[in-house]
Amino acid sequence: MCGINGILHLQLQKKVDERVLTKMRDSLEHRGPDDKGLFIENNIGFGHRRLSILDISLAGHQPFLSEDGRYVLVYNGEIYNFKEFYPELKSNGFDIRTSSDTEVLMKLFQLHGLKMLNRLNGMFAFAIWDKMEKKLTVVRDRMGVKPLYYSFYNETFYFASEQKALFTAGVPLKMAQDGLEEYIFNRFVAGENTLYQNVKKVLPGHIMTIHEGGKTTTEKWWNLKKEIQNQPEIKNPAEWFRETFDDSVKLRMVSDVPVGVLLSGGLDSSSVLASLHHQKYKDIETFNIGFKEKEHNEAHLAKIVANKFDYGFHTMQLEGKNLFDKLLTSTYFQDEPIMHLSEPHLLAVSQMAKPSVKVLLSGEGADEFMGGYVRYKALQYPSLLNSIATIGNLDVFTKQPRYEKLTRYAQIIKKSDLIIYNGSNIYPNDIAETFGINTPPTNEYRRQIYKEAKSLYPDNLRRQALYFDQHTYLCSLLDRNDRCTMGASIECREPFLDPRLIVGLGSLEDKWLFAGKKWKFILKSAMQERLPDEILKFRKVGLSAPWGDYITKSPAFKEELESFSKSDLFQIPYFEHINIQKLIQNLQKGDTRMTPYIMPLFMMHIWMKTYATKF
Length: 615
Fold this sequence. Notes:
Elements: E1 2-9, H1 18-26, E2 35-41, E3 44-50, E4 64-65, E5 71-79, H2 86-91, H3 101-112, E6 122-130, E7 135-140, E8 149-153, E9 156-160, H4 163-168, H5 177-186, E10 200-201, E11 206-211, E12 216-220, H6 224-229, H7 237-251, E13 259-262, H8 267-278, E14 285-290, H9 299-308, E15 312-317, H10 320-334, H11 343-353, E16 359-361, H12 366-370, H13 382-391, H14 395-398, H15 401-409, H16 415-420, H17 428-435, H18 444-456, H19 461-471, H20 473-487, E17 491-493, H21 499-507, H22 511-514, H23 521-527, H24 533-536, H25 547-553, H26 555-565, H27 580-588, H28 595-610
Parallel strand pairs: 13-14, 13-16, 14-15, 16-17
Antiparallel strand pairs: 1-3, 1-9, 2-3, 4-5, 5-6, 6-7, 7-11, 8-9, 8-10, 11-12
């Protein structure tokens, strides 16, 4: 919906500099090109950029002030069920003057305080300043769909939807050593820490309160483990799933502007489209990214399902110079080195969609809640991993990428590490051998989540991995989706992340997830009458691309690869033992096993060269 940011000086006499706040706000113009606003009062300042989706009139302008003048709100996101609260608010004497969810959020807060949070079905990051009590409250949604970063610097509290706004305000851009370690070993930084010193995230499902003077408290308002434990038994899971999913899709169609669908051609996004068709939504436009390499391409499937439901279909391919340019742009929007390697493609397809829609529905979250990744299968029989570890040198294992990765994964001995590194592409032994880095990160947050997962699903590695990913890997995916779509000034909504689905799926028996050849059994059971066999039976591809070929064979990348081989990155003591020339030469000779080693370093080189120099 927008970009939010703000400044709270913890010294009472220090006034907010309007120029600094304006620069922070306008660094997020891509998040909200439709409107902008400022609120400044002594030592507190709020900035807002608006992408108008609900009540596109000026009535939805922010920062939003309560009618009694006590509270000031900046808010990013959507409360999908906001109209449900109209009768309650009216019966308590509140007039509804707009058709925006911002007004509802403010009035619910006035009526109930933060107790209202559990009743919201939506995605949100917001901040409320209480002029009377002189305190700032910042809140993030259950799963962290909407980002919220902050920094305490020079006796000042800064917050923003993206890190770049903090750097624009003068917070120094300095890499954190533990963040760097997590990036190499785990692909991204989990929990409240980031790649940067002095920059943190408000955790999903958390509230942070900052009092004038500096006293700070943090509390968890939503706990997935407790919610799952308190979930009543679901009598007919397939029917429950279908009805709840349809309602979730319907809620996420609440909009005063056109809504489209990111359609990969896989089961998840096709299920979103099938639900829209079942509910008789007309004139839906779908947007797809295709690949010329057959093994990565699902565009033909996306076209089949769009045609079946008589919806518009748009596809594109990204390669050569266009891919290189989008890589640079997506690195800027991401604020960190890209790690999923699909960011340029997602940004490009969002930019293609922008002339037609302002909102896109995505299939994100289905894999983490229903067991959609092949990597979970390795956890089905842990004893087999020991056998694979001993026979891993056989040609059948080393010559096929998937099996080659499995043999490396099988070297991990501890069950906790099998979970913690399940989403990695290279593992501690590989990193020690190839990079000369022998000490894994402490991974404090990951170990805390693993402990939770283990207590909720004892002796069940697959369920532990799902719960673990829901609090780690999925957060990185949601951040990618938000940055890439907002980079095109489009809002992304995820129907699979409805809280009713999240909690209900977590309470079901294993058979509803892991039965059948490809798992996600409950989704296939619920959708088998709605989707063609081509979708239900197709081998999962995901949004993947042959980056090893791109960087060694594409003319657009040739010069950059030369620059990479001599990058300042390898002057950092942490990377001093890496023989990057040798890794590149092996990749150029066709050894694709080098790709997972080279790509994180290449993307960090791009980030250092094009992003870190901007601030």
